[in-house]
Amino acid sequence: MLRSTGFFDVFPGEGAVILGLDDAQFHARRALYSFVNFPAVLEFDWFLAYPDGAPAPVPPLFDWATAAVARLLGDETNTFERVAAWVSPVLGALLAWPAFAIARCVASTRHGLVAAWLVAVLPSGILVTSLGNFDHHGAVALVAACWLASSLTAAGRSGRKLALWACLHACVVTLMLFTWSGSLLYVALGAGAQLSAIVLLHGRPERLAALGASLLGAALPASAWLLGSRAPLGGAFSSQCLSWLHVIALLGIATPVLALAAWERARSSTGPRTRILRLMLLGGALALPWLALPTIREEVLRGILFLAQQDEWAATNPEQLPLFHSRPELGARLAIMRLGFFAYLVPILPLFLAWRVVRSREREKLVVLLLWVSALCALLLSQVRYGTDFSVPGAVAFALMLGDAQRWLGRRLPAPMPATIVTLVALVGLSPFMRGIHYARLVHTVSQWEKRETSSHVRRLTPHEEAIRFGELVRAVTPETSGFLEPGGRPEYGILVPPHIGHRFTYTARRPVPANNLGPYLDRSQYRLAKTFYAAIDGRGAIAAVDALGVRYVVTTARRSRVETFAAHLHLRNGSRQTGHPAAGRLRLVAMAAREPVVSGPTTAGPGKWRVPYKLFEVVAGAVLVAEAEPGSPVRAAIRVIPQEGEAFSYGTLAHADPDGLARLRVPYASGSAGRIRTSGPWVVRTAERILKLSVSEEDVREGREVRTSPRAPGQLSPSIDRL
């Protein structure tokens, strides 16, 4: 049995693995498909952007490789999930190896040990590689670090060693292309940094030829994949998915580099200025025709803007917040939580490395490291999601800085004072998260093991577990759909959920959703409609969005929100009529999560001590109750609803009679229904003059039939019904 305080938990006594929420479950959905249908890859997913489906927005390697490893160990879903749970921590632990190799390559073994230790303890590298967080960040950071290490080891190679390096470098580039949808960033950074160092410092033709050949080698498998697969999300030249734009970028860099190598071999340049002019001439001659094409130009600009954009989705996405936020409640908290007081050194790392380049005799390696660190510092300052990518180059730079500080003190103080002072300074810099993260997790883990020994201990579910349990409940109370694991299967219906929790319902509930955690980057129109439902004040606008999406079910949450929205009213009052909110005549409660105590803070649960975190409603046509009344007079209808999980409530609605003296009230519940959500007795309809009892069947509700009946004398109404 496994236990962790991060993204991964196991229910005591059950042995069930619960993977992390959101992106972890998105990757789990794709990897599980490959695990079951090995060696197939889920290229087009009908469970994305329901009802049209969408191409998978990420390259297949990370998920497919996990499925392959899991298949070697067993053929049960639990085996797959256990393997998936360990992927991120294993990859995160491996980050120490390239950190050591890079620091030793540019400095010494001692610097390598310090860099490896920093990577192991800095939260920027381990926060998103926790046990169970089955996400791609650890894989991307590891491949990127290997790319940087490969670029550094090219210095000084020649002949067969250089040819072998080109083959290995092509493999690293290929791994990045098939691991991360944003690999164009590293194509530009990795190739650009190495090319800049060569052109600025020596311009050796064999080094240029090796670099160009390695990029051509990486373009071959990417081209083969694209020729045999569907058009990627965003089109054939998408900047945010593996596409032909990636092949064009590789060829666009490799071709002028190879041409420059031939030019340098035929006629050696006199200095860096000549080489720069030659490269600009060759690169411009190739790039300008491509950039003249509107499709290519727009995608390149879109990719550049995506690196650090702050749109409506970014405002609610923790990954896209800047390292130092302008909001007072955040401020430097994000930075210190990820890097401790070392975060304040991030802006000056490029200056420090530039100073080291000027003072060094072997500049090529430091120039490459400088360009990598400068780019990743800028990206990290703009968005914290680059923290894992930054962890290895950043740890190397921090190690060099600590080593230089000790050397400077060593000229002025006797041993062992310099080493002691630097060690104390480093520990102080790391102290904020040493207690807040590492020590807190250790204490929590120990306490959990102690509680396991007490049989009488009743453990309260975490919000993570509540979400997973509710997803499993949704799967249990809704009909099965096709296509989750069956190749080519198209689901019969979809579920509307808040986009920020879409992935967890796709994997845990195994139901398709119109919009998920990819926000507007997946399908902007479906995302807009989903946002319209949850932000609508008017019920008619919300129902119109539901009809446009064509979903069968709707999920509401008790998350902090504007209580006046229709979705919040639906969750709080189950759609029953309240002042300012008409009844939700086409949405009926199907299931709800177990109640949880409200600890603090405003929620849609109101002032009580309990709240229900999730509810599931079904979209129905709604039966129409027709009653005679004085024109313009109010007519009310009510029924008692008894959920299996929660307290009974009265569902009521109101309408006014039209000029013909008829009032029509749309209702979503059948009379006397049984099951998880029961109703007590018939509908009770009150007019100004009389009281009616109407029996509504399930067919009436589903087909939207009109239901009429004869009036009943007011005095015969029972007290229990009168309380409705």
What can you tell me about this protein's structure?
With 724 residues, this protein is α+β, with helices and mostly antiparallel strands. It is built from 25 helices and 17 strands. Strands 5-6-10-7 form a four-stranded mixed β-sheet. A four-stranded antiparallel β-sheet has the order 13-12-15-16, with no helix packed on it. A three-stranded mixed β-sheet has the order 14-11-17. The chain is elongated. The two termini are 50 Å apart. 47% of the residues are buried.
Tell me, rounded to a whole number, the average pLDDT: 85
Report helical residue fraction.
40-55%
Order of neighbouring strands in the sheet with most strands: 5-6-10-7
Q: What is the overall silhouette? A: elongated
The biggest beta sheet reads:
4 strands, mixed
Indicate the radius of gyration in whole angstroms.
Answer: 31 Å
Number of continuous helical runs: 25
Provide keyphrases for this structure:
724 residues, alpha+beta, Immunoglobulin-like, four-stranded mixed sheet, four-stranded antiparallel sheet, 17 strands, 51% helix, elongated, disordered N terminus, disordered C terminus
Task: Note the topology.
Layout: E1 9-10, E2 17-18, H1 23-36, E3 44-45, E4 54-55, H2 61-73, H3 77-94, H4 96-106, H5 109-121, H6 123-126, H7 137-153, H8 159-177, H9 184-201, H10 205-227, H11 244-266, H12 272-291, H13 294-306, H14 333-339, H15 349-359, H16 363-382, H17 387-410, H18 417-452, H19 463-477, E5 495-496, H20 502-509, H21 524-535, H22 539-549, E6 553-557, H23 566-573, E7 587-592, E8 596-597, E9 610-611, E10 614-619, E11 623-628, E12 634-643, E13 649-656, E14 662-667, E15 677-686, E16 691-694, H24 698-703, E17 706-707, H25 719-722
